[in-house]
Amino acid sequence: MIKDEDKQTAVANKSVLDQINSLKREDERLYNILAIDVWALAKTMDEYQPGFWAAFMKNREKALKRFLAEMMKNKPADSKRPPFLR
Predict the structure, then answer these.
(1) CA 86 – CA 77 distance, rounded (Å)
(2) If you write DSSP's letter for every residue of 12-47 in order, what string do you get?
(3) What does the alpha-carbon distance between residue 39 and residue 11 come to, in Å, rounded to a whole number?
(4) Residue 46 · residue 52 · CB < 8 Å
């Protein structure tokens, strides 16, 4: 009886792990598709408007810095962590 329950638990755990791995692969695939779409759009725009790519990357850098600053500002202080990890 205990062995049957262990087998059922093992099968359920394997099923959940398979689903998680499937979701991870799908997430990576969608991320790669999005990256290709952004690159294709920027490349096409750069052909029609020279300098578009440079301006795009500059704006992306500004947005990333702003996002990181906002995340750090809203992050709760955890006194248990060392200062270099806060």
Answers:
(1) 7
(2) HHHHHHHHHHHHHHHHHHHHHHHHHHHHHHHHHHHH
(3) 42
(4) yes
